[in-house]
Design brief:
The protein is 46% helix and 9% strand. By secondary structure, the chain is an alpha/beta fold. Helix 9 links the parallel strand 4 and strand 5. It starts with 9 loop residues before the first helix and ends in a 41-residue tail after the last helix.
Length: 485
């Protein structure tokens, strides 16, 4: 039961999706990729049904996004459906997103019919099976997440084997829908812990999730990558996505690159924030991304209002202007970064993919550190990887932990970090150095000074590095949803 009403049969949901008369998300992404342009999507999600519908309509009217978001609340993400239902009826403003399961698929259809753009569900749940069924019944054709990326960055103690099994069920359902003629865009959250994520860590996790999704029947896969802040490195990472897809996925899988605009501490001054928004949008275009997740000039202050969100959409769309066609990255530097990223991803994922049982190999690799992500909230990741920026602002490995990177790769990272930071910092100063790396753009714009006291650096605390035994914040993020999803 969802919203007090049983779910309809799958065939009825398929018929409803066809009757909507709107492009599915996969078709929108394909159209933009073919045109060499970038589709634009904001984050948004509030607890009340009428408020959610009004927010979607406002963003559609003022920003004209290509895809719209329903960001799910924390209670629903964690399977606390009764709690979400009570708050949805008694105090929806206390929710930091839309409780889709509580409101139910009939109301989901109301949201879908209120706007012309296709909808995507963004959430952060290690087990999204029921949420996915409600989304499909609502006619929603894009769904984010994966068994690694929606577990380790968010949850303290959810076994990887359990989250991988739950997401396999979601992906098998996508296969059934594909056989019935409905292609669901399955976006993988390579953004992970959102800040200072080395490109090869992000892409390695997405490759493994993509392989598992394709085997389960998914036909359209979007790989999301978090903007790090270095043009050549970010463009190279986006350009790596179709090459990795050709290397590790069947040829009939449609794969899209997606960029999340910078998710570290945002500049506080509006002009500076808008410069960064346009900068990220240009990176998405130069990297061949099919889609961009936008930010707003109010990002540094908390949840933006609808007008700021719409302004961010309009600004990001300017990167598609033919007048900006002269903008280009340093192609030689980008090619070097691309070569290294592809080599590093291969070194990380191929030992896992050599095993006959990929899911079991993933679990074992995270347990012993051969797979890892920095600043994870989970007990099931070692979080031994320590990233740092080099002198140019690119994200390198200060420590690769137990990742199976070659000595040649490790030597390059050591050389890059040393060239920018001198000797490795003492542990007492490491947190301050990492925090300064996360505060990269406020420092660049001169809004704040380098300071060893993390609290003196300003910016939202959820953007600072977390130690492995510290739970992530589940407070509302951008546009009413989590700051990462």
């Amino acid at each position: 039961m969802t919203g007090g009403v049983p779910l309809p049969p799958l065939q009825e949901s398929v018929a409803y999706i066809r009757s909507l008369g709107k492009e599915p998300a996969a078709q929108v992404l394909g159209r933009y990729r073919e045109a060499g342009r970038v589709a634009v999507q904001p984050r948004c999600g509030v607890g009340g049904h009428d408020a959610m519908r009004e927010l979607l309509q406002t963003l559609a009217a003022q920003g004209e996004p290509d895809i719209l978001t329903i960001t799910i609340d924390s209670h629903t993400r964690l399977g606390r459906f009764d709690r979400a239902r009570r708050l949805a009826h008694l105090s929806p403003r206390e929710l930091n997103g839309y409780p889709l399961v509580a409101h139910g698929w009939a109301r989901g259809r109301e949201l879908n019919e209120a706007v012309a753009a296709p909808l995507q569900i963004r959430h952060g749940s290690p087990d999204a099976r029921l949420m996915f069924e409600v989304a499909v019944a609502s006619g929603i054709t894009s769904f984010e997440g994966g068994g690694i990326s929606y577990n380790l960055p968010y949850s303290k103690d959810v076994a990887l084997a359990d989250s991988l099994a739950a997401w396999e069920a979601v992906d098998r359902r996508c296969g059934e829908l594909a056989e019935l003629g409905v292609i669901v865009d399955r976006e993988l959250f390579g953004t992970l812990t959102a800040v200072l994520v080395p490109p090869s860590v992000s892409l390695a996790v997405s490759v493994l999730e993509a392989v598992l999704a394709a085997r389960a029947g998914v036909r359209c896969i979007s790989v999301a990558y978090p903007q790090g802040g270095h043009v050549a490195q970010d463009v190279a990472a986006l350009r790596a996505i179709p090459l990795l897809a050709a290397r590790y996925l069947p040829g009939d899988i449609d794969v899209h690159a997606v960029l999340h605009e910078f998710m570290g501490v945002f500049p506080r001054e509006r002009d500076n924030a808008e410069d960064l928004i346009l900068y990220g949008a240009l990176v998405a275009r130069l990297g061949g991304a099919s889609k961009l997740l936008t930010k707003t000039y109010q990002e540094a202050y908390g949840i933006p209002d609808a007008e700021a969100n719409a302004a961010g959409i309009r600004l990001a769309r300017r990167a598609n202007s033919p007048l900006l066609g002269f903008v280009a990255p340093d192609e030689e530097r980008t090619a070097q970064e691309l070569e290294w990223i592809l080599a590093e991803v291969a070194e990380i994922v191929e030992p896992v993919l050599e095993r006959p049982d990929t899911k079991a190999a993933v679990v074992e690799a995270f347990a012993d550190g051969r797979l890892d992500i920095p600043f994870s909230a989970s007990r099931h990741a070692r979080s031994e990887v320590i990233p740092r920026r080099d002198a140019s602002g690119a994200i390198r490995y200060l420590s690769a932990g137990r990742l199976p990177l070659s000595e040649r790769t490790l030597r390059r990272h050591r050389d890059q970090v040393r060239s920018g930071a001198g000797a490795a910092p003492e542990m007492g100063s490491l947190l301050a150095e990492l925090t300064a790396d996360i505060n990269y753009f406020p420092l660049l714009f001169g809004e704040t000074a380098r300071n060893p006291d993390p609290d003196a650096l300003g910016g939202p605390r959820e953007s600072r590095p977390r130690t492995p035994d510290r739970r992530p914040r589940s407070a509302a993020g951008r546009g009413g949803g989590d700051a990462r999803a």
